[in-house]
Amino acid sequence: TVEFHTDLLPQIFHHCEENLPVYARPLFLRFIKEMPLTTTHKQKKVQYVKEGFNPALISDPLFRVSAETKTYIPLTTENVSQFMAKSRL
What we know:
3-stranded antiparallel sheet; alpha+beta; ligase
């Protein structure tokens, strides 16, 4: 697993809010130690796409956007269904 300092999450939220249009802002953040590469230096993303944002499958730190608190908060198996019920993905 990756060690991550959550005090950076509000800064990441505000950076995205100031620099990205609404449709391009990430709803989920997943922090990994190192992105695996192919032999031609392309990112290996297939496994990450398959796992999606399911906290039951992912051991890396996983966060979801919180418009109420204007930051990213931990995504857990308990609050993922709450988030999905509210969101318009």
